[in-house]
Amino acid sequence: MTEELLSLPVPSVPAGESGVAWLRSQVVRFSDGPEHTRRRALTTALLEGVDATTLDELADRVLPGAPADVAEIAPSYQPHEPITAQADAAVERLVARHGRTETTAARIGLLVQAWAATRAFADRLTTGDRTPPVPLTRRQSAQGVVEVDLTAHPFGHGAHACPGRELATKIAKNMAFKALHHRAEPLLLPNAWDHATAVALQEAGYPAVGTTSFGVSAAHGVPDASGLAKEHTRALARLIGTLPCPVTADVEHGFSEDPDEVAEYVASLGISGINLEDGRGDHLADPADQAELVAAVKRRTPGVFVNARVDTHWLGIDATTTEVLRRAEHYLAAGADGIFVPRLPLPGIATFTATFDTPLNVLAGEPVHRLADLGVRRISTGSLLFRAARAATVETANALLSPGTRSGAA
Ligand code: HEM
Asked: Model-level pTM greater than 0.85?
């Protein structure tokens, strides 16, 4: 039924010489037939190869300097909405800069379509709301204009289905992952080591899933923090990156000391976050060098949440709060979105959160409410789930195989 309604023509818009009326008359969204086919190809071509990780990056690629104007145009874009003088002026400013062409209209239309819908999608991923970000659309039937509920097809269906679906999903997950660090309660982040465990955790209702480098390395028979899990980590990130929630990966120290190589590696994962550690086995990286890695990742993929890990307490090297703060300052100046200090004692946690507003991540251990009261924004399980599963595997096998036990194996 919804599919049938969505295959009806879109309500037609009158020709317009300038402002929003001109924009509406030129875009793919409000056209049908050969005009729609031509404009759809234009839009698809504009989106091709755009690997933006934020809406601002998308705007930069598609129509530089447009965000403020796009925000003015959006409320007047739909034909059933009144056109404001500000919206008309914003269209004309963009036309003056980029020309009154169908391509300019396609660029504006693409960004207007992207803006509010992607934010609404990110909000839903953050709160767990399952209603469609674009609740309805309109079609022209013989009886007049009908509203079509999009619950069954959040990205539309048929000829007008959203061409930005993949990109929008990636950007919305990035936005949601960041927002999950700024809610009233800390983010409880479980760390998976394979596809099955990531799916189980997502299905159990966790709003985001991470990976454990210890678990991933152990599952593939290589030592942790040895740099040997690079391809296993990438394969897992790509696999679980398709889950309907944000995903972050523990990428050790980025598997290279070359900032550009680390940045390219992170971009190739296509997920919402990474943990990047300054531990190098038996010593700590120079914080200025480590900051270069952080900065390169943020330049290449600004929407990816970089959780800079300070390994002072993990490795027991320079394990003082002063050293944690010094290192954190370097990484925050380079653009890190969060700081992770495994094994940081409670007084150090209190000093950190009193010094920086940036989200602090610690390992699970202390009661959640205690960490929350100290201002911790993210609590990770690290390798705990992996170790628990391994122990439970042996225990279950032993219980089943011990003499006198009936087999319950499937
Ligand atoms: C990067 C972000 C996005 C871009 C570039 C984008 C672009 C577009 C464009 C150009 C169209 C018109 C296609 C046509 O008429 O042939 C469209 C349609 C549509 N978009 Fe998106 N969009 C984005 C995000 C979203 C999001 C987050 C949602 C909601 C989940 C969404 C839902 C829709 C729907 C439902 C339609 C079809 C409307 C209809 O059939 O009447 N879009 N999108």
From this structure: yes
